[in-house]
Specification:
By secondary structure, this protein is of the alpha+beta class. The protein has a single domain, classed as 2-Layer Sandwich (Histidine-containing Protein, Chain: A), CATH 3.30.1340.30. It is built from 2 helices and 3 strands; from the N terminus they run H-E-E-H-E. Strands 1-2-3 form a 3-stranded mixed beta sheet. A hairpin with a 2-residue loop joins strand 1 and strand 2. The radius of gyration is 16 Å and the shape is elongated. The protein starts with a helix and ends in a 12-residue tail after the last strand.
């Protein structure tokens, strides 16, 4: 029984490392796009990328999703992006 628990525990930590690497890779790819990704959050769990936030056009959304899907190791992209103009509360005041 102890061996099975160890394998499961090791598998969970390995998955987290893979997810962190995927999150970093996806963030880098999206940041390189000519799109304002300041209001887009990326999270990964078990190879599933979740994109949340706001973009201004459907084309921007489609491009971000396609680029996230293209990252090696991504199993699925969950689209939680909202399309529309940035709202005042989305824009943080700069000092």
């Amino acid at each position: 029984m102890r061996t099975i628990a160890t394998v499961i525990l090791v598998g969970l930590f390995a998955c987290s490392d893979v997810d962190r690497r995927l999150e970093h890779d996806v963030e880098q790819i999206l940041a390189a796009q000519p799109i304002n990704t300041e209001h887009v959050e990326v999270s990964v769990r078990h190879g599933v990328v979740k994109l949340e936030g706001r973009v201004t056009t459907p084309e921007e959304r489609d491009r971000l999703i396609a680029n996230a899907r293209a990252v090696d190791g991504v199993r699925w992209v969950e689209d939680r992006l909202v399309i529309g103009p940035l709202r005042p509360r989305d824009i943080q005041m700069q000092p």
